[in-house]
């Protein structure tokens, strides 16, 4: 899921965030200084985030347009996700799936073919309305709040959602609450252990263009950037056991759908993708983590 970057005109002090929300171990070191924001990194868990988290409280959850732009790649993406889910939590032991940020519910429909019983939540009213017509009862408007009963879910999934949250620690607290002991958390996010990240991170220290999203973080958009190390620390501190971490590249059709990209840049992107796969330094990861009793 992608969001539209917030308006930048009025920097609001209330969005300042100097401490890691996961560790509370003091101020995060400044990794990159931009003209209008900082990128901080926690010495404890290595998560990176924007300070301030947002420039304003303008929030556009209605990303149906972006979702439809990248719809062609979804079948392949959902196939990858299903294969990982079935290895980690097969429907015989984990029959119910709740997906947060599910848009039209395409993943849930794919999961149903394998025997899962799915239910989805989204904050896009147009996506919820669309799902109500095509798959009645599948998708509800809402978040993972008190309406989902404690220990009621076998699998909780969120694909490319948590990096957009300004309180991801609260999401994980709810995830732990709604999953039953032995339940499985399945997340997909951009990651730091990526060839793109390593190259752009060093470049970003030199060229401080405020518009740049070189390393994939920007206030109000991708607010947090996680990684293998971050997830292991953050989740073990919250009574989850990471059971798998798998690299995954953003589909080329999704990258190329976003804008007109010059031929030379396309060649570079394809080359990077091949290199990322060969070195196992893809730009995203899918993790599974079991809620311990
Ligand atoms: Zn931390």
Structure report:
The chain is α/β, with parallel strands linked by helices and 293 residues long. It has 2 domains: 7-58 and 195-220, no CATH class; 61-191 and 226-291, 3-Layer(aba) Sandwich (Rossmann fold). The protein is 32% helix and 22% strand. The chain contains 9 helices and 11 strands. The chain has helices at 64-69, 74-88, 106-113, 125-134, 168-178, 195-206, 228-236, 252-257, 263-279, and strands at residues 29-33, 38-41, 48-51, 96-100, 117-122, 139-141, 153-159, 179-190, 224-225, 240-248, 284-291. The chain has a 7-stranded mixed sheet with strand order 6-5-4-7-8-11-10, with helices on both faces. The chain has a 4-stranded antiparallel sheet with strand order 1-2-3-9, with helices on one face. Helix 2 packs across helix 3. The model is unreliable at 1-12 and 205-209 (pLDDT under 50). The structure holds zinc ion (ZN).
| Sheet with the most strands: spatial strand order | 6-5-4-7-8-11-10
Along the chain, the helix and strand elements come as EEEHHEHEHEEHEHEHEHHE
- Amount of beta strand: 15-25%
- Pick out the low-confidence regions: 1-12, 205-209
- Could you say how many structural domains there are in total? 2
Give me the secondary-structure category. Answer: alpha/beta
Based on CA atoms alone, the radius of gyration comes out at 19 Å
Salient structural properties:
9 helices; binds zinc ion; 293 residues; seven-stranded mixed beta sheet; 2 domains; four-stranded antiparallel beta sheet; Rossmann fold; 22% strand; alpha/beta; 32% helix; single chain; disordered N terminus
């Amino acid at each position: 899921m992608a969001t539209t970057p917030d308006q930048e005109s009025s920097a609001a002090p209330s969005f300042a965030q100097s401490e890691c929300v996961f560790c509370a171990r003091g101020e995060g070191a400044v990794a990159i200084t931009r003209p209008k924001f900082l990128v901080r990194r926690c010495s404890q868990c290595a998560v990176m985030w924007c300070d301030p988290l947002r420039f304003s409280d303008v929030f556009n959850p209605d990303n149906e347009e972006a979702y439809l732009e990248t719809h062609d790649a979804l079948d392949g993406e959902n196939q990858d996700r299903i294969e990982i889910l079935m290895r980690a939590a097969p429907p015989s032991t984990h029959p119910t799936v709740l997906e947060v940020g599910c848009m039209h519910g395409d993943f849930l429909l794919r999961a149903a073919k394998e025997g899962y019983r799915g239910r989805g939540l989204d904050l896009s009213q147009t996506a919820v309305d669309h799902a109500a017509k095509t798959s009645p009862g599948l998708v509800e408007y809402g978040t993972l709040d008190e309406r989902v009963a404690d220990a009621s879910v076998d699998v909780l999934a969120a694909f490319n959602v948590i990096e957009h949250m300004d309180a991801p620690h609260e999401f994980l607290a709810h995830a732990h609450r709604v999953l039953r002991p032995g339940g499985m958390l399945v997340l997909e996010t951009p990651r730091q252990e990526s060839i793109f990240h390593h190259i752009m991170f060093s470049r970003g220290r030199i060229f401080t263009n405020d518009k740049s999203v070189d390393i994939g973080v920007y206030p109000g958009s991708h607010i947090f950037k996680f990684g293998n190390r971050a997830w292991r620390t953050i989740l073990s501190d919250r009574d989850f056991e990471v059971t798998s971490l798998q690299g995954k590249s953003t589909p080329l059709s999704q990258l190329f759908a976003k804008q007109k990209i010059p031929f030379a840049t396309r060649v570079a992107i394809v080359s990077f993708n091949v290199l990322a796969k060969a070195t196992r330094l893809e730009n995203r990861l899918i993790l599974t983590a079991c809620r311990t009793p």
